Structure formats: structure tokens, C-alpha cells
Amino acid sequence: xxxxxxxxxxxxxxxxxxxxxxxxxxxxxxxxxxxxxxxxxxxxxxxxxxxxxxxxxxxxxxxxxxxxxxxxxxxxxxxxxxxxxxxxxxxxxxxxxxxxxxxxxxxxxxxxxxxxxxxxxxxxxxxxxxxxxxxxxxxxxxxxxxxxxxxxxxxxxxxxxxxxxxxxxxxxxxxxxxxxxxxxxxxxxxxxxxxxxxxxxxxxxxxxxxxxxxxxxxxxxxxxxxxxxxxxxxxxxxxxxxxxxxxxxxxxxxxxxxxxxxxxxxxxxxxxxxxxxxxxxxxxxxxxxxxxxxxxxxxxxxxxxxxxxxxxxxxx
Amino acid sequence: xxxxxxxxxxxxxxxxxxxxxxxxxxxxxxxxxxxxxxxxxxxxxxxxxxxxxxxxxxxxxxxxxxxxxxxxxxxxxxxxxxxxxxxxxxxxxxxxxxxxxxxxxxxxxxxxxxxxxxxxxxxxxxxxxxxxxxxxxxxxxxxxxxxxxxxxxxxxxxxxxxxxxxxxxxxxxxxxxxxxxxxxxxxxxxxxxxxxxxxxxxxxxxxxxxxxxxxxxxxxxxxxxxxxxxxxxxxxxxxxxxxxxxxxxxxxxxxxxxxxxxxxxxxxxxxxxxxxxxxxxxxxxxxxxxxxxxxxxxxxxxxxxxxxxxxxxxxxxxxxxxxxxxxxxxxxxxxxxxxxxxxxxxxxxxxxxxxxxxxxxxxx
Lengths: 316, 364
Description:
A: mainly alpha; ABC transporter involved in vitamin B12 uptake, BtuC; 0% strand; B: mainly alpha; 3-stranded antiparallel β-sheet; 3 strands; disordered N terminus
């Protein structure tokens, strides 16, 4: 039995619209993570960076009324967390898994704390802020088919730009070449005169900046409020998605759309109310799909050779 | 700039230690990590117009200051000791188990099944039954990532993290759906059988038998760690998996077993919280105990005694921050900030155990 709604155009338009929205935080997070991993650092701080981005964006917007300022400062916060991650994993060269988790635990606690000290919550209800409005393109936006899909807050389009930018940086610039070099063979890169430490710092700063935007999207564009732990493990989906997309911005983009699509479809279909099973089971879908995707690609992917390996110039 | 962040920090460079740092120095470094994290966290207290010393005084008073306070700290210590041991054991075998949170919930779900299915069975039967169920539930949650790791080489960090969410949502689906207690205002399972409730061991407090179960598990871990051949093998693997493999130790098999036991211990945490404190399966069963277990394992240097001390410290911070919140108004999530910074500082401390920073060109 096929629910009749599935045969209607309006249903699919709302699925596509939601797909785009669900994909945005995954695009920001995964592209950011690709910068870190291409340079040889697995950044498990991603979830904490996203949460900090969400919290800072919200708090700044709440206090200034300026969502652009919130968005920018969220990015800078992510960048600073990237520096912390780099200090731990590049300068000191400690265990990358645990360093990242430390940043995630710190980020989830700190995002909650900053929110609590900055925003009065009367009766426990979090106040809404003025968030990014949907863009309006005369002509197209009023179209009943295209309009609902393209009328998204501006950061959604920034995410698309970031994909193109990342592709350009990775394959067309010196910086991208150096990032890939230090992630594949740091010693050879060092011999060739590349400052491995500096490049890894830069890569992690870029990573943190974009990742935090993924969180900011959630609090000041997709919604207009902050909830503790609101990223709900999206960071971990990004970690898997970057493997699935083989560290390539365009494949990552397609992967993010696929996962955004799964998310959008499960949300839309359960809203129809045909299925008499608890809706929480639908929530597990993206996570289970991610694990399955990891199993499928695990035999074929080639990780950046120096991933997880700290570089110490003194040690041969 | 370039030299500042390179391996040469100014005129200093990083050199691997040839000698092993004596135990008291390693412990000392961890104490410095803890004190350092509290000092750094003061930066967050000062803007609120509260003297950090007073805030921390209130925190420790709230954790240790009375019989009730101390009992609450021990109540929190119980699940943390389970998850701390669980993570430490897995890390010892180089299985990076970040899934203790999900394993805890699956353990609680397995235990709940028996707790709400059988009423009137004597305690000495139902309690062990539910504990075993909890252990098996936790092991089952660890089994999938362990298998994927050992068979396909898929990073267990990602799979355990993802499974935490899968299990959490399944648990939610169950308590909102089939196991929903019709007489509760909020989603939770019906109450488990009274016979399955763990005995209270101190009148007027919530302190329950689970404390002794947790301590027994920690003692078992001590025996495995320092007295058993298996512990010896695990430590060899921890030092150098390749060398251990060359010496005929089955690294994969050891990792698999350690993962399953680790998951089982985390599952016990869920069962014991259910049977000792909550009596209903509910969302608030764990306050991130699985993640705190990671901080505890690292801070405790994976050593049984270290894990006990670290668990007690984390229980102190988490319990005391609630009291500090009531008396000074500082939000209690400060506890999680302290935990995060402690983990980062513990990592830096481990770095200084393995490396030293010396002057370039200076005397040795």
C-alpha cells in the first residue's frame, strides 16, 4: 500500500526543501572535517565545535539582534577551538581520538554554560531570536514548485559556496596542495620545505571555522533557539560522511544530500501518520545508514596516509 | 610564528623520554591536571561576580559536607566507577570504546525486561538475573562495533558513537510506546518488581547495594590488571600491539574479549542505576556517565586505583556543582566544563610522561 500523499507533487517538494535544510549542517561539518583529515588530523572535537557554534551564534544574536554578527563570531569561536585541537595534536602530538573527545566534552559543557549565564529563561522557555530570514528572489520565490525549495536562509547558499571553495582550495591552490602533502607524507613535505606544523594549524583553523557554522545554522537559521545538545550527534555523522565522500568536496556534497534526504524523508513520512510505529525509530535511520555506509565503503577507501599520526621532526 | 608552533617551541624542543617516569611523578602530574582544570574554570566563575574560592568551597561542601551530601556523592560515584572501569579496560586493549553511554542504556533495557516481566520472584534470584541481563545487554551493544573493528577494520570510535544514538532512540521509542507506564505523567517504563530493588545500605539516604557491586567490579579489574596473565597480555598490547603480536599474543581476540567485557560492565551501570535509584527505565537514567567514563579512565591512567580515585573526583564535581548552583547561582554545567578541561589536561600530563621539553643546545 502506498500512501496517496506520496504520489503528490507537494509532498515531494516539501521533502526536497527539507533535504536541503537537513544537508546544510552536514555540508559545513563534513567539509570542515575534510580539511582536518586531509592534513592528517582526525578531529573528533567536531561535535563540541558544532555545539559551541550553535551556542555562541545564538547568544550573540540574542544580545545584539544581529544574526550576521552571531554567525561570524560563531565561526571565529570554531577557529579558536581548531587552534586548541592543533596545539594538542600537532604541537604536542597527543592521541587524536581522545584529544577530540576532550574538546567535544568541553564544547558541550561550555556551550550549555555560556547559554545559561547569558540568556535568562523565564519559566524554562528558551526565548527565540531573530534568525536568518528565507531569501526572496523575485519571480522564482513565488513559484509554487521552485519557491519552497529555494526560499532558504542565506547560510544554506553559503554552504554551497563552501563546497565550491573547498574544491578550489584542495585542487587548485598551493595551500590545498600543501594540506594534502602533509596529510599523506609529512616527512617528504617537510623535506620539500613545507612547514608541516603551520599547515596543519591552518587546516584545523579552517575546519573549526566551517564546523562551527554547521552549529550556527541549527540555532540561528534552521531554528531560532538554542537547546543543550541540539546537534544530536550530527558531528559523528559528518565523521562517517567524510569517509563516505572520500575527502572530496563534491562527493561530500552528494553524500550530505543523500543523508539529508534520508532525514527529510523519514520526517515527512512519519508526519503523514500512516505508520503505527514509534517515531523515535525513524530517528535511528540516519545513524544506522551511516554505519551501513561505513561497512560498504570500508574495503575501498584509501585514508590519508598520515591520518592519526603526529609528526615529530626530531623523530626519524 | 612558524618557529613558535613547530616542534621547536622557541629555543626548546620535544624529546622522547628514555626512562619511565616514576609512579609518584605520574600521579603528581594528574593532580596538577585536576588543579589546573579547576583554576582555568575559575575564569568562567569570575564574570558572575562570585569568588571562585567560595564557589569551590560550596562545591566541596555540597559534595562532602554532610552525611547526606557524601551519600549523594557515593550514589553518583557508583555508575561512574562502572563506566570508568569499562572504558579503562577497553582502552587498555586499545579498543577505543566511546560507546559506554549506549551500552549503559541497552544494559538497562535488558534488565528492565526482567524487572517488569516477573513479579514475586525472590530477590536473590531476580537481582542476579537482572544484573546478568544488564551485562549481556551492554556486551551486545559493544559486540557490533567490536566485530566491525576486528573483521573489517572499521574505526570503533565512530561506530560506538553512532550506536549511542541508535540505542538512545530505541530506548525512547520503547518508553514512549510499548513499555509506557500508563500511570506516569512522563515517559517511563512501569516500576520494576519490588524484589528487584537494590537494598538501601544507609538509612535516610539513597545509597544502595550497587556501590558494593561497583567496588567489587573495580576489585576484579584490579586483579585482572595486576595479578592475571590476561592483564599482562593487555598491558603488552597497550605498550606496543605489533611487538605483542610478534610474541604470540592474539591481539584481535584479546581486543574482542576486552570490548565485550567493557560493554558488559557499562551495561551493569545501567542495570544498577535502574535497580538502585530509578526503578523505571527513563531518559534521565544516565547523565552522560558513559562519556565521563572516558575522562575517568584517562585521568586514572587506566589503573584500577586511579580509576577509583578519578571516579570519586568526578562524582564530587558533579554532585557538588548542584549544591554550588543552589547556593551561588553558578550554572551546574560548569561540572562538565571542568570535566572537559580535565580530560585535555590529563592528555597533556600523559604527554609529559612520555616526552620532555628541553633547551636546544643546552646541557643534558
